[in-house]
């Protein structure tokens, strides 16, 4: 891994785009459109999820709910950052957690990219004309039955935001350099429903980024580390 070199020479917009370009051509693994049937088996294998750190756990066997999120990389003069949201405490799913903007893929959505951009605009008011999609991370399967496609986009600063107060209590940014540093990829253990669960945690200032969001940030760090 080359994370230390990148920490000394912070990743620029062009370098980030190049790293994702090396993952494959548009269309592969769902990037830029829907994968054709011949790619379906390969797409299923290129997944990660809550089960990865827990030996003996398997992904949910029931039908998974397709979802998409935007992993927004903010291009600022003093270095790139990742935009995240704090969900409101009254939501029925993942209340109070830190997450990327996103949600279920609706029938009206052309693909995962469309869903991620639509949800981002609805949740934080960031319009799609401000986002340049550069690629995607691995599909992430959650223990709650969601199959998430993380689309990565670059946003030029400054930009206006208008968070939906029903869904989002706060929008904040984490330096990309923090995400790239593997010493911040901590593993924690808790007993949940009489089972020991291991998961990633990225403690940033007074916040704890954990679960699926932390797992996708670790995936992002792996991609950008080359």
Structure description:
By secondary structure, the protein is α+β, with helices and mostly antiparallel strands. It has a single domain (about 5-225), classed as Nucleoside Triphosphate Pyrophosphohydrolase (Alpha-Beta Complex), CATH 3.90.79.10. It is built from 6 helices and 12 strands. The chain has helices spanning about 5-10, 15-20, 40-45, 110-125, 175-180, 210-225; strands at about 45-50, 65-75, 80-85, 100, 100-105, 130-135, 140, 145-155, 170-175, 185-190, 195-205, 205-210. Strands 1, 2, 3, 4, 5, 6, 7, 8 and 9 form a 9-stranded mixed β-sheet that branches. Strands 10-11-12 form a 3-stranded antiparallel β-sheet. The longest helix has 14 residues, at about 210-225.
CATH topology: Nucleoside Triphosphate Pyrophosphohydrolase
Give the biggest beta sheet. 9 strands, mixed
Mean pLDDT: 82
CATH superfamily: Nucleoside Triphosphate Pyrophosphohydrolase
- What is the top-level CATH class? Alpha Beta
Strand content range: 25-35%
Unreliable stretches: 1-8, 25-45
Summarize the SSE layout with pairings.
Elements: H1 3-8, H2 13-21, H3 40-45, E1 47-49, E2 65-75, E3 81-87, E4 98-99, E5 102-104, H4 112-124, E6 131-136, E7 139-141, E8 146-156, E9 168-175, H5 176-180, E10 186-192, E11 195-204, E12 207-210, H6 211-224
Salient structural properties:
single chain, about 230 residues, alpha+beta, Nucleoside Triphosphate Pyrophosphohydrolase, nine-stranded mixed β-sheet, three-stranded antiparallel β-sheet, 6 helices, about 25% helix, globular, disordered N terminus
């Amino acid at each position: 891994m080359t994370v230390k070199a990148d920490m000394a020479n912070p990743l620029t917009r062009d370098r980030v785009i190049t790293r994702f370009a090396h993952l494959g051509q548009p269309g592969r693994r769902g990037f830029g459109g829907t994968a054709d049937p011949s790619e379906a088996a390969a797409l299923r294998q290129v997944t990660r999820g809550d089960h990865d750190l827990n030996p003996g756990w398997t992904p949910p066997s029931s039908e998974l709910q397709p979802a998409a999120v935007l992993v927004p990389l903010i291009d600022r003069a003093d270095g790139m950052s990742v935009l995240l949201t704090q969900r409101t405490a009254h939501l029925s799913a993942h209340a109070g957690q830190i997450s990327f903007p996103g949600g279920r893929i609706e029938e009206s959505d052309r693909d995962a990219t469309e869903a991620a951009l639509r949800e981002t605009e609805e949740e934080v008011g960031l319009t799609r004309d401000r986002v340049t999609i550069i690629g995607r991370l691995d599909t992430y399967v959650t223990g709650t039955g969601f199959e998430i496609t993380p689309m990565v986009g670059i946003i030029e600063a400054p930009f206006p935001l208008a968070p939906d107060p029903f869904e989002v209590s706060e929008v904040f940014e984490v330096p990309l350099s923090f995400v790239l540093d593997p010493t911040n990829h901590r593993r924690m253990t808790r007993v949940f429903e009489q089972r020991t669960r291991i998961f990633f945690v990225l403690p940033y200032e007074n916040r704890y980024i954990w679960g699926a969001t932390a797992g996708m940030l670790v995936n992002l760090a792996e991609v950008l580390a080359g």
